[in-house]
Design a protein that fits this description.
Elements lengths: L2 H21 L9 E3 L8 E3 H17 L4 E4 L3 E3 L5 E9 L1 H5 L6 E8 L2 E9 L4 E6 L2 E6 L2 E4 L12 E4 L10 H11 L2 E4 L3 H9 L4 E4 L4 H4 L3 H6 L3 E4 L8 H7 L3 E4 L2 H11 L4
Parallel strand pairs: 3-5, 11-12, 11-13
Antiparallel strand pairs: 1-2, 3-4, 5-6, 6-7, 7-8, 8-9, 9-10, 13-15, 14-15
Helix pairs in contact: 1-2
């Protein structure tokens, strides 16, 4: 591992610390919720989202002003460095505003558009899921442990997670997801970024979603991959740059075992 990546692996923890300190004063308070959409749909944002992203951006700009940044709340800042950052300050804002603890802060480091280091940080529970060249680890107040995806030889033994069934409301997504969900042992809705963390931790086997943005997924890729898993679009293609998300319409699969990944791609690829 290069010295640059060693530094990034250390620095990303400083970013997570800063975001957690900025966000936590807003959690389980009666905060205002704004709607980012004006077409009758609901895409919430809170001051907690904005405060978390501002804290992350300020630290990056202070320490690495040449690094680019893409964040959900404040958009794109380009930079000349091959290292750039991708941020979702609160993945699961609907959960956050409901007072539930299954939201997380997603921070990812990209090297020439490839996600190389990522964290999913949950400051309320004190859990930080980390992935990078040095491996995958769950860091808590009591210490840390290595993470590894579990073996799962067939869909009939798999636990599948998806955040919201409305992701698959339209044809042909609806039909192929029903075929997949009918093939697994257990389907659980909800979870947001926690589903991917649970794949890395070996508690779940598969996550399938649609209509995601790059900042929803790319920080999670190094975590799942460092734990031995795989993340692709529904056609089995790697998800890297924004162009990959435009092509795939945010349809992605995270799997802990390549065998169930292949089985899921076989079902879902007709709608890719």
């Amino acid at each position: 591992m290069s010295d640059d990546l060693k530094h990034i692996e250390s620095f990303i923890h400083s970013l997570a610390d800063a975001s957690g300190a900025a966000i936590m004063p807003y959690f389980r308070t009666r905060l205002d919720v704004d709607n980012k959409l004006s077409d009758g749909k609901f895409d919430p944002v809170t001051e907690g989202d904005r405060a978390g992203e501002r804290a992350i951006r300020a630290l990056i700009d202070s320490e690495h002003p040449d690094h680019g940044i893409l964040g959900e709340e404040y958009g794109l800042k380009e930079g000349p460095s091959p290292i750039s950052w991708i941020i979702d300050p609160i993945d699961g804002t609907r959960v956050f505003m409901s007072g539930l603890p299954t939201w997380g802060t997603l921070i990812g480091a990209m090297q020439n558009t490839v996600p190389v280091v990522g964290v999913m940080d949950q400051p309320y529970t004190g859990e930080r899921f980390f992935g990078g060249p040095s491996g995958a680890r769950l860091i808590t107040r009591d210490g840390e442990q290595a993470m590894k995806c579990r073996s799962c030889e067939s869909l009939s033994n798999a636990v599948l997670g998806a955040t919201d069934p409305r992701m698959f409301a339209q044809s042909p997504d609806k039909e192929v997801f029903r075929t997949l969900s009918d093939s697994v042992k257990l389907l659980r809705y909800g979870g947001d970024c926690y589903n991917y963390a649970m794949v890395a931790l070996g508690q779940m086997d598969l996550v399938v979603e649609a209509h995601n943005q790059a900042y929803d997924i790319l920080p999670l890729v190094p975590i799942v991959e460092a734990a031995g898993g795989i993340v692709t679009d529904w056609a089995g293609r790697p998800l890297r740059s924004g162009a990959d998300f435009d092509r795939s319409k945010g349809k992605m699969i995270a799997a802990g075992d390549k065998r169930i990944h292949e089985a899921a791609v076989k079902i879902l690829s007709s709608a890719a």
